[in-house]
Amino acid sequence: MLQKKLFLTSNLCRKFITISSARFLPNRKMSTSGDDVIFQNVGDKGVITLNRPKALNALNLSMVSKLYPTLASWEREKTLVIIKGTGGKAFCAGGDVKSVALAGLKGEKLGHAFFKQEYMTNGLIGTYKIPYVAFIDGIVMGGGVGLSVHGLYRVATERSVFAMPETQIGLFPDVGGSYFLPRLRGKLGLFLALTGYRLKGADLLKAGIATHYVNSANLEALEGDLLKCSDANSIDSALKKHSAKDSSEFSLTPMLKQINACFSAGSVEEIIARLEQDGSPFAQDMVKLLEKMSPTSLKVTMKQLEHGSKMTLEECLQMEYRIAVNCLANKDFYEGVRALLIDKDQKPKWKPEKLSDVSPALVESHFAKLPEDQELRHKL
Predict the structure, then answer these.
(1) Which of the residues 118, 174, 332, 335 is marked catalytic?
(2) SS3 category, 333
(3) Catalytic residue selected from 94, 95, 144, 146
(4) Contact status, residue 123 vs residue 317, Cβ threshold 8 Å
(5) Known catalytic residue: 177?
């Protein structure tokens, strides 16, 4: 299990959301930043609200460009930061990869700027010097995981749905996935990375992705108590006070032996062979899932987690930026986004089409260093 620090629709409606949340704590000073992210100053505390409910709070360049400088400033000025999503359905469903892909098809560099800002923010959260509390209520995938899992406190609810589904769109589990995934128990991280399997509710706590589990109805009260806290002990007490009990077994416990046996293989092809040999309904379902993914992404992801298991978070994010830039130069990312999010035919035509045609050289090319002036730097 991960440690707490993880090693280490209209404008009127938006204004109503802002004003309503402020009513409960009248001393909040509202930010004048754009509507997609709301920054609130509450004395010596800060509250961030991701505010694109129709898009399930998916991150775009505008949002990540605001998050990094604000978090950097608040690290010096505040004693605690809370981050949450609006709308009740999602904390953050990931990055706005559709916009990235459409821009890339026009020859624009939106993706380069987006990933750079996003990963810098992930790295900052991973080394944050003050308590950082993420309310991962609802969907938390991709970029939403990066905004939460590297922080000190991650609060899941019965509505939480976690996944890293990037291999389905010709990408890889980024936002520090190469750091936190291999550090989950056994081969659970590699399993989640390759298959995009979803975990729900208290399973996030049992897997080590969340640090606390709270009923969603109690989040408002928890937020109010956290904003009154003065030190680490009072934060821990507030979280303990609102934590919900869940005595159910981790949903994957019955399959962990199979997961460890199959996903400890040395290649993606061998993983699939072992699953086929296992023959259980679960194993057969996983084979069907893997056969839908980009063959290149599967092999890149396996290599990524292998490297990441021996790296610091900063090194992982630098590696991931190189992979991201190289994915933007290849066809599978654009084809994956087309099939899933644009045409929605669910029939991507991957190139190469088969795992056996993905050469070691193609995999290694995704990890190639960038020109020095293009490499990821962790400070502006």
Answers:
(1) 174
(2) helix
(3) 95
(4) yes
(5) no
Catalytic annotation, pick one of 46, 94, 142, 143: 143
Under a CB-based contact definition with an 8 Å cutoff, are residues 366 and 322 in contact? yes
The separation between CA 24 and the C-alpha centre of its own chain, rounded to angstroms, equals: 30
Distance CA 31, CA 313 (A): 31
pLDDT single digits (tens) 55-113: 999 999 999 999 999 999 999 999 999 999 999 999 999 999 999 999 999 999 999 99
Q: Is 143 a catalytic residue?
A: yes
Our answer to whether residue 34 is catalytic in this structure is: no
Please give the model's pTM, rounded to 2 decimal places. Answer: 0.90
Tell me, what DSSP letter sits at residue 151?
A: S
Residue 162 near residue 289 (C-beta atoms within 8 A): no
d(CA 127, CA 8): 7
List the alpha helices (DSSP H) in the chain.
11-24, 61-77, 97-105, 110-126, 143-146, 177-180, 188-195, 203-207, 219-226, 232-242, 256-263, 268-278, 281-290, 295-308, 313-328, 331-337, 360-365
SS3 134: strand
* Kind of pairing between the strands at 45-50 and 199-200: unpaired
HSE-up of residue 241 (Cα within 13 Å, Cβ side): 15
Instruction: Give me 280's structure tokens.
Output: 């259980």
Q: Which of 166, 223, 320, 335 is catalytic?
A: 166
Tokens of 208: 């080590």
